[in-house]
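User: Some background: our group keeps a shared notebook of sequences we're curious about, and every so often someone picks one and asks for a predicted structure to add to the entry. Today it's my turn. The entry only has the sequence so far, pasted here. Could you supply the structure so I can complete it?
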Amino acid sequence: MNYKSASINSIILISVTFLLLTFASCSAGYKNDGKEVTWHTWNEGNGHNSRRVDADPKTFEVLNDDYGRDKTHAFYRGDIIDGADGSSFRIFRKCYAGDNRHVYLDGAVVENADPATFKVHTYYFAEDANDYFWRGEALNVRDKETFMLLGDEDSWTTKWAKDKYNGYYLDGDTIADIDYATFHPIDAQIPIQSGSYAADKHRVFFMGTEIPGADPETFKEVGFYVGQDKHRAYQKEKPTQIKDYTKLTQLGRLMYSDGINIYDSDFHILPDADVATFEHISDNWYKDKNNVWWHNKLVVGANPKTFSPVTVTSYAGGTHPDFNYGKDDKHVFCRDSIIPGADATSFEKIDFPDGDSWTVFDRNRVYQGKDSPKLRKYLKKKYGE
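Assistant: Of course. Here's the predicted structure to add to the notebook entry:
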């Protein structure tokens, strides 16, 4: 017999048994020992946590992992649901519940919903005798008989619906007087694109807003919140001066070039940019042979020859360039402004464990975070101060 293998197998069996018992005893939900009701959670980061629920143990019922009730109150994840009636409180489906007055989604009231006729189709889609609801919000549908979702009723990627009178952007906008037969969402590769455009044979819409001059036959979504037809590109609902978005070169996240001009993310021309030497440094930072920019803002006084983003150092190891702090050979900048008096040679950003999140400092002062003992030790070791 291989005693080493047997020993290892025994250890594995004991460990698995312990883990199963631990998970079973620490699963999320309610516990009622007859004397006290408690709400329990478990996650990998924080482990097991529990707290007392202000409920009557003698009449408390567990309805599912999230909801419970006693003779007086209803509860969502251990908290009393304000105004809910415990005696009539019931589950419709997982996250939906109701009493004799209201419907609730994730413990919050679904406004204008009728609990007597409420029917849950999916987490996203529900209805009562008078209206349809999307993610707990009433759509104020004008004609229920002809209403239809333009997508999967169980998918967050569905953005549009219609009836014979209106188009509905499901996050809250209504479009009146659509052409019912031809109203449709513009195809989109969600989440790379937004899915927030729709059209009928007469008009194009961004969310609930008509796009002036847009051509329904040729309109496409070509970027997130970017549309294109045979005439021009559009930023959300606004026409731009860009004739063909597909011919632009994207520079980082925030800039574009057509070889003649540099454009910001709203497709406004960036003044004074030299197209031939314009480049993306990192994140929010750009430069050409003459200037430095943070987003589309000129960083006055920055020397592009010596400029670089401030290096962010993790105390545990690893570095990356900062989004908002940069420096050249003479100055330190926060976004597009010089930090008066900051020392460029010693300016740093580090996450000291005893600091206040990230600490931004030079050898003379702290600009963000707190003056911690580990910072003092670091400065003394580096500068002898």
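Suggested note for the entry: Helices lie at 3-25, 373-383. The mean pLDDT is 91.
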